[in-house]
Design brief:
433 residues; eight-stranded mixed beta sheet; single chain; elongated
């Protein structure tokens, strides 16, 4: 279909062929209309029954909705048409008929529950609202990559099948690898750290991660997209600067390039964060959460921040914010502690604004301290020798972070469920489609 014209490019006076889906048929008696939809929009096809071949009219007006059609004809100006033009057809071909009994209504006139939509994702993404989310998601990833280029990163791809888990524990999906036990990788963490010790020094990756978490909530997934950054010769403060730069770039890209999609979703006042994200210490965070009075029990040093606490603090702050200086005991082994206070880690989280969006920190680059960290968390250093031995050969100070890609889209668009931001989500109940 090399001569196909997209619907929004059809101009009065042109002879065109448009192809797309039969979105709607309106039969008004002596005249009927077929609305054809493609990825760019919709166009009206007019059938004057008395003036046209009966077979042509029948093909164009009796086709089942969502069938794929090709229409050739002349474009005429028509102010009453949805797009100001219409096609007077010379031929209509049904390229792929659709079953009249559709599992959901792509026109959106009849709502469908989320499970039904996820079971029929191809049909679901024919809805303008669903399609808009994924156009925005694509822009978020494109903008993140551009920001990484501005930060002088080398984009890498790390293995997703590994011999040991990034952080140990039970959140691993085991697989059989030629008779050996292997796992789906939880994170590119260890590999991206190895790369800052190579000649690359500063790296980024956007790719899948896998976590066998038991959580079954609107904000958790078992397969997710991680947006990762790691750099030699920076500390955790500079890593937060880079994190803020990438998050803001994602918002700016969407604001600049997704006006139609935002309008489709009803965002007339989409805001790009324009002020520096506040940086609260963990101690300040639990004090402010306690002061809100939203929790049944007061938080104490060493507690993780509960969901209710994150929401209370987010409402108090009113936007994105970092939580820094976490207790060492609740951060992973690879996060470096402060030299003058080993009870405090350089770990940080970025909240957006009522859930964790980013986890990061300065890394422990000293071999002996790293091995001690493994042992302190009950992990066998020998199982990670491929990683630890490289720290004997000149590993520079380094820091980095990872953004949850779906959480970034979810919080940006205020989606009620993270599954809205995934084409084919994987959770405890869903392994197909």
């Amino acid at each position: 279909m090399h001569d196909r014209t997209v619907t929004t490019a059809a101009e009065p006076g042109e002879e065109v062929t448009v192809a797309g889906w039969a979105h709607e048929i309106r039969d008004l008696g002596g005249i009927a209309f077929l609305i054809v939809r493609d990825r760019t929009g919709k166009i009206q096809v007019k059938f004057e029954k008395d003036a046209m071949d009966d077979a042509l009219v029948e093909t164009g007006t009796e086709v089942a909705r969502e069938s794929v059609v090709s229409v050739s004809g002349t474009v005429e100006e028509e102010e009453r048409a949805p797009t100001g033009v219409e096609i007077v057809p010379e031929s209509v071909e049904v390229l792929a008929p659709a079953d009249p009994e559709l599992p959901l209504d792509p026109s959106g006139k009849v709502d469908a529950e989320l499970p039904t939509r996820l079971d029929n994702r191809t049909l679901d993404l024919r809805r303008e609202e669903a399609k808009a989310i994924f156009e925005i998601r694509a822009e978020v990833l494109r903008s993140a990559r551009e920001a990484f280029r501005d930060l002088d990163c080398t984009e890498i791809t790390t293995p997703k099948i590994v011999a040991t888990g990034t952080e140990g524990g039970t959140e691993l999906f085991p697989i059989t690898y030629f008779g050996q036990e292997a796992f789906m990788n939880q994170s590119p963490q260890l590999f991206k750290q190895l790369m800052v010790g190579s000649g690359l020094e500063r790296v980024s990756e956007i790719g899948p991660i896998f976590r066998a978490e038991e959580h079954n909530t609107p904000r958790h997934l078992n397969e997710a997209t991680s947006i990762d950054f790691e750099s030699a010769f920076i500390d955790h403060e500079e890593a937060m600067d880079a994190c803020e730069q990438v998050v803001r770039a994602a918002y700016e890209g969407v604001a600049e390039n997704c006006a139609d999609e935002l309008a489709t979703l009803g965002y007339d006042d989409f805001e790009v964060p324009d002020e520096a994200f506040p940086r609260l210490t963990y101690e300040e965070a639990i004090e402010r959460i306690n002061a809100t009075g939203e929790l049944d029990t007061q938080l104490v040093w060493g507690d993780d921040l509960p969901t209710e606490g994150e929401k209370a603090l987010g409402a108090d702050v009113g936007g994105h914010y970092f939580v820094t200086d976490w207790p060492s005991e609740i951060k992973p082994f690879y996060i470096k502690d402060y030299d003058d206070n080993t009870e405090l880690s350089t770990g940080f989280d970025l909240m957006a604004p009522d859930m964790e969006l980013v986890s990061g920190g300065q890394r422990e680059h000293r071999h002996d301290h790293l091995v001690e960290g493994f042992e302190a968390q009950g992990l066998d250093p020998e199982a990670f020798e491929y990683y630890t031995k490289m720290f004997k050969y000149g590993m520079p100070p380094h820091a980095g972070w990872a953004i949850g890609g779906e959480r970034l889209v979810m919080t940006m668009l205020d989606l009620p469920n993270i599954r809205e931001a995934v084409l084919f989500p994987r959770d405890r109940q869903r392994l197909s489609p």
